[in-house]
Amino acid sequence: MNTLIIYAHPEPKSFNGALKDLAVSELQMLGHQVQVSDLYAMNFKAVADQDDFHQRQVQDFFKYGLEQNHASQTSGFAQDIKDEQDKLLWADFVIFQFPLWWYSVPAILKGWFDRVFAAGFVHGSEIGRYEHGGLKGRKAMLSVTTGIRQEAFTPYGMEGDIHEQILYHINHGILYYSGMKPVEPFLVWKPTQSEELRKQYLTDYKTRLHQLDEIPLISYHPNGHYDETMQLKKEYR
Amino acid sequence: MNTLIIYAHPEPKSFNGALKDLAVSELQMLGHQVQVSDLYAMNFKAVADQDDFHQRQVQDFFKYGLEQNHASQTSGFAQDIKDEQDKLLWADFVIFQFPLWWYSVPAILKGWFDRVFAAGFVHGSEIGRYEHGGLKGRKAMLSVTTGIRQEAFTPYGMEGDIHEQILYHINHGILYYSGMKPVEPFLVWKPTQSEELRKQYLTDYKTRLHQLDEIPLISYHPNGHYDETMQLKKEYR
User: Fold this and answer.
1) Mean local confidence (pLDDT), A98-119
2) Which has the closest alpha carbon to A177: A142, A224, A217, A136?
3) Which among B49, B174, B232 is the nearest to A102, CB-wise?
C-alpha cells in the first residue's frame, strides 16, 4: 500500500514527531511504501495567494477558486502544490499527524489544505464532491494530540464533542468532501502527563498501524441520502 | 466604542472587501474608533515558529505554548504579535471578516489565532479560560461569506449545522475560550448569485452595524455549569 504522512509540528523531538517516526518505520517494515511531507521542515507556504499560479485566468480580480480551476485545466499550479497533489494521487492511505491547536489544525496544515485541495482537483462541477470527490478510492486518518483531558470532549463536555463538533469540519468538511474515506482518528490525550502514558500511546499506535485496513470508517451519509434541497431524507434520520 | 476588524481576503475588490469597507465607514460615521488588521496587505506571518519570540526559555526543545507563556511574562513576543495583542486590548468589539475556506478560516487567519491568541495572554493557569479568559469584557462577531447554499448548513443539511458543527470550533473553541462574548455571526450565502443579492446583504449588514450592542450573544454555558469532571451538570442539559 502507498502511504502518505502529512506531518505538522515544529519540533522533531516532540511526541508528534515520535508518532510520525513510528509510523514511517512500522509501515516500511510491513512492506508499505511511505512518503512524508514534513511541512515545517519543508517551510511549506501556508498562505493562499496569486503566487500559487503560473498564469492567471483573470488579471484584474483575484478569485482563488476560479484560478485553482484554471490551474487544474492548464497544469498551472506552483511546483510545491503540484508536488503535494502528485503525492495524494500516488497514495492509498493518508495520515495527518498534528497537534490540535485552537480546536483545529495548525495554520501550516490549514494552508496545505487551502492550497493543495484545489477546486478542479478534489472538487468541482465536473468532478463532484463527497463520495464523488477527486480523491475517491483513498482512506485518510487524523492522528491528533491534545493538551486537554478526554472527558472534556464528550457530548456534554466543556470543550464540545470531539467527533461531532471539533473534528467534524476536518473529517467531514475536508476529507470526506474530497472523496476520501476518513477512518476513526487516533487521539492522544495530554501525552505530557507521563512517560508511561506516552509509551502506552506508542504501543497502541503500533497496533493500529499493523491493522490499517481494519480501522472502522467514520459513518457519514452518501450523497444519495440527501434530497434535492440537500436535506437528509426522512428515512435516514 | 473601540472596534477592531480582522480582515482576511486576498482581493480588495472582493465582497469580503466591500463588507470590510462598509464596516469601517459606518462605524466611523457612528462615532466609533476603528482599527483594521488587513492580514493579506500586512503580509501577516501565518506559521507559528521559533521566530515568534525574542528569546527562548528552553533551547533544546521547542514547545510553542511554553514559549508563549514565557514571552507573556517577559514581553518577549515578536513585534507583529505584540501589535495585534495591543489592538485586542484596546478593542471593545472585534469583527472577523473572512470567506469560509474548507469549513474554517483561511490559513492566514488561523495563523493569526495560533500566534496572537497566546498562552499567558488569553488563557493559562493564572488567567483561566472561557468566561475567565484574558480577553473578557469584549465582544466578537464572525462575518463570513460562503459559496454554498444556506439550506445545506441546517441540522439535517449535507454540510452540517453551521452553528453546532462548522463555526463551533471558532465561536466556542477560540472566541468564547478567550473570554470574549461571541455574538450571532453575520452570514452571507453565495453572494456570487446576483448583484441584487449583494446589495441586499450590504443593506442588512449596515443595519446590523448600527445595532452592534443589540446583537444577541451566542448562548454558551458559563464555567459554573460544569462539574469537576468537566461535564455539564444534569440540571443544565
Assistant:
1) 98
2) A136
3) B174
**Segment holding B31, helix H or strand E:** none
Residue with cell 452518501: A222
The partner residues of A53 in beta bridges, in order of sequence, read A77
Residue B136 structural domain? 2-236
Of B13, B114, B172, the CB nearest to A61: B13
pLDDT tens-digit map of A193-203: 999 999 999 99
A50 touches chain B (CB under 8 A): yes
B111, with CB counted inside 10 A (0-12, 13-18, 19+), is buried
> How many of the other CB atoms lie within 10 Å of CB of A205?
18
Give the per-residue pLDDT at B125: 85
CATH of the domain at A148: 3.40.50.360
Give the global pTM: 0.98
Percent of chain A, pLDDT > 70?
A: 100
Calpha distance A40→A42 (Å, rounded): 5
Would you state the cell numbers that stand for residue A44, as one nine-digit string? 511549506
> Which amino acid belongs to residue A40?
Y
The list of chain B residues with pLDDT below 50 reads none
Output the CA–CA distances (angstroms, integers) from residue A153 to A158, A187, B194, B199, B230, in the order listed: 7, 11, 41, 41, 9
ipTM for the whole complex:
0.97
A128 pLDDT band, cuts 50/70/90, is confident
Contact A102 B173 (CB under 8 A): yes
Q: Give, as one character, the DSSP assignment of residue B231.
A: B
Give the separation between CA B65 and CA A32, rounded to whole angstroms: 35
Cα torsion angle, B204, B210, B213, B214, sign: negative
Q: 3-state DSSP call for residue B80?
A: helix
Q: B124 — contact with chain A (CB < 8 Å)?
A: no
Task: Read off the amino acid at residue A219.
Answer: S
Tell whether B81 lies on the interface with A, counting CB pairs under 8 A. Answer: no
Which chain A residues have a beta carbon less than 8 Å from that of B161? none
Q: How many CB atoms lie within 10 A of CB B39?
A: 23
SS3 B69: helix
Supply A216's cell numbers.
Answer: 472502522
Biggest alpha carbon–alpha carbon distance for chain B: 58
Q: What is the per-residue pLDDT across A162-184, written as a single tens digit (0 to 9) for each?
A: 999 999 999 999 999 999 999 99
C-alpha to C-alpha distances, B193 to A129, A182, B146, B196, B198, nearest whole angstrom = 20, 32, 11, 9, 8
3-state DSSP call for residue A227? Answer: coil
Structural domains counted in chain B: 1
